Each structure stands twice: as C-alpha cells, then as structure tokens.
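Protocol step 6 of 9: fold each sequence in the batch and record its structure tokens directly after the sequence line. For illustration, a two-sequence batch is reproduced in full.

Sequence one:
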Amino acid sequence: MRLRTRLVPSRASGTTRAMLAAILGPVMVGAALTVGSPAEAAITTQVFAATNDSYVNAAAPTTNYDTSSRLAVAAGPARISYVSFAVTGLTAPVVHARLVMHTSSASFAGSLTGGTIERTGANWVETTLTYANRPSPIGSPLSRFGIVKPDRWYQADVTAAVTGNMVVSFAISSTDPDGAYYDARESAENWPRLAVDTGVPPSPDNILLAAGDIASCTTDRDEETARILDSQPGTVATIGDSVYESGTTAEFANCYQPTWGRHKARTRPAVGNHEYLTANAAPYFAYFGAAAGPAGLGYYSYDLPGSSDWHIVVLNSNCAKVGGCQAGSAQERWLRADLAAHPSRCTLAYWHHPLFSSGERQAPNVLPLFRALYDAGAEIVLNGHAHQYERFAPQSPDRTADPARGIREFVVGTGGRSLQSNFGTVVPNSEVRNGTTYGVLRLTLYTGGYDWRFLPVTGQTFTDGGSGTCH
C-alpha cells in the first residue's frame, strides 16, 4: 500500500511538515511512503482546514462568539462548538476521516470529558452563529474526545459523516461543567482540520498491531494508544503486562476494559510478569479466555486469516511459572514441535521479556526459545517489558549480525503505562531507539515479506518504518 498525503491550502500558510506529522501520527506528510505489499492500492490522505468555526452559549442565546480565539465545550450553561469543512478534490472512495483538534494552552483548557461529536446541518456561518439559531444534529453521535489536557492534539473518527466531496459540519458538546477549550481557526498553527483518507482500505486479515505494558487506572496514555487501534484494522497483539499493577480481576474490568478492552474480540495476548502478581495469573486467563491459549500455560500459536504464508507463535517468558524455558523444558519442546508442524515460509513470535535490550531489562533465560526460532528460520520476535521502543537488525542467538538468516527483534513496551527515557549501554545490532513516545507497532504481513511502522499517539512525532523479506 502506498500512502500519500496532501495538505489542502488554508488560511494558516505557515504550517510545517513536522507539525502535521505530529498531529496525524502515522501519516507522513508531503511524502510517498511504501507501507504494504506492492500489490496493494494507494491510500491518499488530504488534510482540510476549517472554513467556519465558533461556539454558542445557552446563557447568552443571541450572542455571537466568532471573535473568540477559543472554542468552548461545556455544560452549566451549555456551550457547544461548531466546526465546518469544505471537502473537495476527492477522486476515490473515502476510507477514513478524522476530526483533529488542538486544546488551548490555557491551564483550564483540559477536561475529563473532551466532548461528544455529532454531525449537524451545514447552513450556518461563523459570523452570525448563536445559540438561538444553531444547526440541529443529524443522526447518532459519531465519536467522542475522552480525557483531554491543555496544549495537545486530539483526533476522533468521523468517517460516517464524510461520504465524498461535500460541506460537512460538526458540533462538539459536553455534559461536564468542567469543560474543554480548543483553539479556533484563527490560531496561527493549531487550527482545526479534517484528515480524509481515500483509496482502497487495507485488509485487516494480514495486519498485526502490537504493544506491551499497557493499561493503568493512574494514567490516560493507554486511552491514547487505544485510539490508534480504533482507526486501525487488524489483529491486536498485547505483549505482556496488559494491566497494572497486579493483573487483578478488578484491574482488567476497570483499567484495561475501557481502553484496549474495547478491542478484546480481535486480541491475541501474551502474559507478562505483572499478571503473575496475582496467583497463577488467573484473572488474565479468565479475562481473555480461549484467546490466551490453554489456561495456565500462556503459550500457543495461530495463523492470520489473510496470510497463509505467516505462522504466529505466542510464548510465556515467565519461565519459572511454566517449568522453565531451558532446552528440553515443556515449553521449548512444544515450540520446536509447533514449528515443525507449521513449516510456513514466514514465522513471527512474541512474548514479554526481551532477550536483547539496551534498556537494561534483558532476560537471558529465554535464549533457548530464541534459538529454537532461529533454527526454524523465524523472521520476527516482538517483546515488551522495557518501556521503550527499540528495533534490532536481524541477528543470531549469539548477537552476531545475520542479514541472511537472523531474527529481527522489536521491543515495544510503549502501550501506555509509562516510559523509560534513558537507555543504558547500547547493545550490539540495535538500530533505532526511543524512550519518549507512546504508540503501537503495525506489521503488515504479506506473501514473502513484511512492512513495519511505529504509529505514535497524537501529538508525538517519533516514528519508524521499513520492510523485510522472509528467509
């Protein structure tokens, strides 16, 4: 799939590529980027600036607020923001559309409820809009902004409202008296925009979305990474420590379920060490059920439905909990038997503790598992545990660079719990490192090869991408 982005001219001519990359996360502005198999069709993203925006106030029903530099969203009294876009120049079907807003830098701009987004009639202009003449909603709510903080970008799915070239209008409202404030289109850089993807959507059957070290009730970063999943098709791979602090039943229900849990039906998990802080990781196995493999073991395998070339193996790196990971252990014997029974050209495996890491969290006891995969010609290993992103060149189990037969390891402990910005001694074959960006790794697995792309949360700019071939 070839991804292209075009910025539609707007009144804010000073917009930079770096800023738009920060706003749109995985979208690479102003460049053509190959992120899928050559056979896939192009996806083009066009970014439209708001043509009208303002807010209304129930306490002053005939007052127009067009001169305000902020858009208010709150209750008690009701304040509703309106944003309109002229979508033009689309030549292919709409695949996805996102409303992208920036919160004001004022200290009071954040809210626990960023607002509900609805489509409205578009027959209004910002210079005459008031509460008394405001347009009515059309249909059901489209999406919601959750917790928002000052001076950050947020985006929400509004695909259902954008059907092609048209003028489309949105209202953002809230039932929370402690409202949110967004920058209006008069802002030099932080004006509202609509990002519209057109083309042929990628198949969800050959995409894997992966991260570990994810959910906690003490942070909203897991909600930000969950929003990436909201707009991405594919199978979700959790690489251990799905919920903090102890993987209890209550934590799965109250901390994981509201964020990544909304994608539970397409999730294939791996178990981490925090899940075992509750006896036998029992709530983990109960929550994920059959998707986690045989209860109590934590290792299993599966095939992606759209990739007959790829076999996926999930392992349990909490070695002491399953009789060890050493050569001849039950898990290592199972792994070798599974690989022999699935002689796919391409193999990917994931588990929690990394064999290789510059984040000083290496786990040498998983070496026999890595060696079994290397012996079978596996391509990729995904790990978490280190709350960082790190990519390695293909290498052998003894840390020797091996571009012909080596395994490429990714450490993706960026799911939301916290980050470790500092790396220790950089270990051999480490190619890319980042400890300041939350996000999800997207792998597109196609016949004979794969592409990877790190998708950062909205407002963060780091990304990493490339392609590889199967052995």
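Sequence two, same batch, same settings:
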Amino acid sequence: MADKFDVIVIGAGPGGYVAAIRAAQLGLKTACVEKWVNKEGKTVHGGTCLNVGCIPSKALLETSHKFVEARDHFAEIGIDAGEPTPNIAKMLEFKDGVIAKNVGGISALFKANGVTALEGTGKVVSSKQVEVTGHDGEVTSYEADNIVIASGSVPVEIPPTPLTEGLIVDSSGALEFDEVPKRLGVIGAGVIGLELGSVWSRLGSDVTVLEAMDSFLPMVDKDVAKEAQKLFKKQGLDIKLGARVTGSEVKDKEVVVKYTDANGEQEQTFDKLIVCVGRRPYTEGVLSDDVGVKLDERGSVFVDDECRTSVPGVYAIGDVVRGPMLAHKASEEGMMVADIIAGHKAEMNYDAIPSVIYTAPEVAWVGMNEQDAKEAGIEVKTGSFPFSANGRALANNAPEGMAKIIADAETDRVLGLHIISQHAGELIAQGVIAMEFGSSAEDLALTCYAHPSTSEAVHEAALAVDGHAIHMANRKKRK
C-alpha cells in the first residue's frame, strides 16, 4: 500500500481540481488522479472543459467573432481595414496556446497548495481504497479516508451517425478542423451545437443544424429563444426543427445524412458532420462492481443534496451526478464537498446556477423561465428591456437582444433572469446574486447602476416589472 491520504479525488476537471485545491487549503492531505494525456504524451489537468470543451471553443468563438467584426462591421464605425482573411492554422495555434497556459496554471496551483498529482486511471475498489493504473500499466493502491469521484462526461454517440475520423466528428473533433468545410452539418441545436456551428459559419461554412425537437431552446424563456432563433437565422445558420436523423453514409469524402421532418424523408450532403446530441456520465472503469456505489437510471452516480453517494466516505460531483453538466456547477460542488469533509457546514443553491451559450450575441439565463413558472402554477409578472434602447449597447454597435426578468406576482421575488446580448454571460451574474440573496425585482429597481453600461438593461427590466421603465414606453399601468 502506498501513501495514505485524507482525500483522493478521481478526475482533475473543473470539479475535481477545485475540490482537491480546496481540500488541501483546509489542511487535508489530498491527492488528485488524472489520466488525460495530451498530444505530446504528457498528463494534463483541466478535463474536458479546459482541453477540448469550454476554453478552446471560446478561443475559436472569440477569434471567429473578431473576424466577422472586422469583415462586416469595422467600416460601420469608421475603421477601414480592407478585406480580412481567416488564418485557420494561426487560430488553432492560438487556441492551443490558451489551453497550454491554463493547463500549466492548474499544475502550478497543485504545487502551491500541496496537492499530490497522481498520473493514471483511478478506480474505487472500496470505501477507503483507490487503485491507480499508471500509463505504463503498473497498478498502485492508495488508502484514503474520503474519496471524491469527479470523472466527468463524454459525448453521446448515436447509431445513425457513427463517428468517422475527419468526416463525422464529435465536439472535440470540431475544434480541430484544419480548413473551413464548405458544407457543414450539425446534429443538435443545443449549447454545443450552436456554438460550434457559429464558429464555422462565421469563417465561411454553409451550416445546417438538424434538431429533433420541435421547439428551439426550450430551457430558455420563450421571448429570448424567439429572438435568438431570429438572429441566428439572420447570421446564416439554417436551423431545421423536428428533424430526426435516421442514417448516414460516407461517400467520396462526403457525408450523406438522412432525416425525417414534417414533410417526410429528407436527405442532405455535407463535407463535415458534427454530432452534438448531449453528453453522458463517464463511469467506465471508475467503480469496482462490489464497491456498493449506486447509479441511477441515467447512469449517473446517485448522490444526495450534499453529493454523498450510497457508500459512506465516497462523494461524487460534476457531470457524473444529477443536474446540469456545467463546469461551474461542478466547481461549486467540489468546494462544497471539500468543506463538508473538513467538518464545515456547506450547501449549494441548485436554483441559482447560470447557463450561457457563447454565440454572438450570447444567450444567458438563471432560474425559471416564464413558461415553466406558469406550468408550475406560479403567477408571475415580467419586465423586459431591449438593448436597442441602451446607450452603451448602441455605442458598442451591439444593439441586438433583450433582458427579461421573471418575478413572483405576489412576493415580487426574482424567479429568473434571461438575457440575449453582447456579454450576456457577464450580465447574468446580477440575476444569480439577486436570486442567491432572495432579492425582489424592486431591490434591483432601487439599485444604482453605472452609466453608460449594458447592465442598465437589467435595471430597466426590473423597473419594467411594475411598469416603471424610464428609457422605453411602458405597456403596463403604473402602480
């Protein structure tokens, strides 16, 4: 038996590495196991989010957006820059550089906080024991008083479109195209599909998005989703709803996709196809069959509100458990679990987890949307404000979008905030904080906001809840 630890974390993604650092900061002897190996054969931390997810996709979203701004909008604001051309190799180089900096940062944080980094595949063999199989195949056993499973998730594959290297790819493969595909198909109009479709559409691809559901972004407030669909269509994304993919065939380095919609059987040919139909919890090889940790019907590790599994001393966090598969949710669960293990009181508010789609404009939301609140029997009042009436948004040449607040009609408590705008992912934090502290719409309406700022749109939406918006005509009767 090798060293004994107070805590061993399996997985160094945004849940695992945060849990490990927090535990070490609280005085617990902590190790973190990671099996991810980069192109150079070196173990790297950060998981899917940092290596092939959140961070690299945002790097490409930012560079492609800047390209579109230079091509289509610089002249509007008085900058004559000529005709820009995208350098895909340079963009990928920038993306890889961003990843490398972040990876190096986590490794440095492990050292600074005294976290022992274990390289290899971790497996829970009992409530107090973890086996780590190194990259050379050697197995080492470690003892721990507490174990945290943070093994994350992997993309879902579907039988009609088996992955084919370079042609039919998942979200990871879509970040590695070395040239712009002329015709690009995307299966799934969720967060990942819209983001990746946007990247390559901006760079010149004819993008078709096939979505099996009949509604667009059903988790977003209906008014914001309607605005998003309109803007994405204007940008060139051909989003086909109610399109259920039934098969595919690779012919002469092209992908022929078959699907059905309201008009019957359809067929479309693409140069590349990205499959973005969701992710599933990754538990393969993480748990011994007799360890006693229960999985639910979706294959997630079953946990309580404090992320305890069915086995005492064993916790699970992030994508491998219930709830939204979001990096920040995993990180906060990691913080909570470390605090609990250290003997502190901690809890997480699952009603105030923000979500963001990093398109342009961005779509962000937290809490309930209007349709869900009504279905739950909650009488609501709402306030909306367009960014076309916001001075800073006009000065930024980014007038698209709106902010909408959903409040309880009886108590005025903020139930949700939904935004589509430039930097909506930054603005949504106002709604998160408001909900965390149980604020009312009036609390936001009485708050002094900086001028000029795009945040003022949230202020005006809060004022509009009771018909008191200043910078637009109010439809509601003032109280």
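Proceed to step 7 once all outputs are recorded. Observation for sequence two: The mean pLDDT is 96.
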